[in-house]
Write a structure and sequence with these properties.
Distance between the termini: 99 Å
Number of helices: 9
Number of strands: 12
Largest sheet: 5 strands, mixed
Radius of gyration: 30 Å
Strand order of the largest sheet: 3-2-1-4-5
Strand content: 15-25%
Helix content: 10-25%
């Protein structure tokens, strides 16, 4: 009348020595059941904390995966304790959008999933809890694998083999997603400046860097970027505002004005108002140091930094900045270090690569390596 009932035979003697010395974990079987409708079974887990927080100081992400469609939702958290609040948001959103009620929630036994208020909320709403055994993430393998996918693919949501010939989006909503509004991350974007925010002779557009998509229809200026310079595509492509239900779920957003990485004779541009480099740093929150060599081993492989270092050495020799001598015995050596910087004009154009060879004077100790200091000035 049932499946999986073991046959009962004669008792076998158990060897405790073998148990203590050879006991091992048996292979994990597949999940005992699969959902047949949206929200019938939801997997959840938290990943983090990350070593580097996001721009909004988030160090964790909370992941929900619908077992039926394999569609997933990601929420970003500052603290694990926020999990319950975001779970209630997800439940309300998922049930309203799908028309189904959540029936089962499968999580590990982490403290963020086991407070009394979390358990009482699930009981009140008729949600069955499935808690995996401690130190056994394999029992919630669906969400654990998605965690790995997100981390390894930097947020890329790949189609899954669990639903045949369709994306998780289609399995959840019942129709194919529209993706013609996708743009290349990091490309140049232009947004129109409304006439109400312009004075006479002000430029009609502003320049941005495309950084992703948002649930909001507009940026802080009240406009959505409409023109994009995408590498490998047409020089300046107009992107009409998406009108499909899927497109409205995510509209393009961009960071504030930034420098122009292209050459002077490249693609046509709108007339952009001039901004100071300090404003570019502050508005974009973009680390230019990422474009600069951090170590000599990196710089020596690139011609722009090779030329910069050769120029620095030639200046040192021309000015007779120092001369090579033998190492005085019983004296510590002050090391040298290469510093690499990329300099721009005020409008962010005409980048110049500079290399400076500096002494590590911070390695000296007052009274030990020196007793007085002298600084020549003009």
């Amino acid at each position: 009348m049932v499946f999986g009932l073991p046959s009962v035979q004669s008792e076998k003697e158990i060897c405790e020595g073998c148990i203590f010395g050879k006991f091992h974990r048996l292979p994990f079987s597949q999940s005992t059941w699969e959902a047949r409708a949206p929200l019938e079974l939801v997997h959840a887990d938290i990943c983090g904390s990350t070593q580097t927080p996001s721009f909004n100081s988030k160090k964790y992400f909370l992941l929900f995966v619908d077992d039926y469609s394999k569609k997933m939702w990601v929420y970003f958290l500052e603290q694990k304790s926020e999990a319950f609040s975001f779970f209630k948001q997800f439940k309300a959103y998922g049930e309203k959008q799908s028309g189904y009620n959540m029936k089962t929630l499968r999580t590990d036994r982490g403290g963020e999933f086991t407070p009394n208020e979390f358990s009482e909320f699930c009981k009140t709403n008729g949600i069955k809890r499935e808690l995996t055994a401690s130190y056994t993430p394999q029992q919630n393998g669906v969400v654990e694998r998605r965690n790995r996918t997100i981390v390894e693919m930097a947020g890329s949501m790949l189609p899954t083999k669990s639903v045949k010939d369709m994306t998780p989006f289609e399995a959840w909503h019942g129709f194919k997603p529209k993706v013609d509004f996708f743009k290349i991350f990091g490309c140049i974007a232009y947004a129109h400046v409304p006439s109400q925010k312009r004075e006479n002779f002000d430029e009609n557009g502003e320049k941005y860097i495309f950084v992703g998509y948002s649930d909001k229809w507009e940026n802080e200026q009240g406009e959505i970027p409409r023109l994009f310079e995408e590498p490998g595509t047409s020089n300046l492509e107009e992107s009409l505002l998406p009108q499909s239900p899927i497109s409205r779920a995510r509209s393009p957003i961009a960071s504030a004005r930034t420098f122009d990485p292209s050459s002077p004779d490249s693609t046509p541009r709108l007339n952009i108002r001039t901004r100071s480099l300090a404003d570019i740093y502050e508005s974009c929150d973009l680390a230019l140091s990422a474009l600069e060599a951090q170590k000599f081993e990196e710089a020596v492989k690139e011609k722009i930094w090779q030329d910069a270092m050769e120029e620095e050495i030639s200046v040192i020799k021309k000015n007779s900045t120092w001369e090579l001598v033998d190492w005085p015995k019983s004296k510590d050596i002050i090391g040298l270090k290469w510093i690499y910087k990329t300099k721009y004009n005020e409008d962010g154009s005409n980048p110049k690569h500079k290399a400076r060879l500096v002494a590590k004077c911070y390695s000296q100790q007052p009274g030990v390596d020196f007793s007085e200091m002298f600084a020549p000035v003009v």
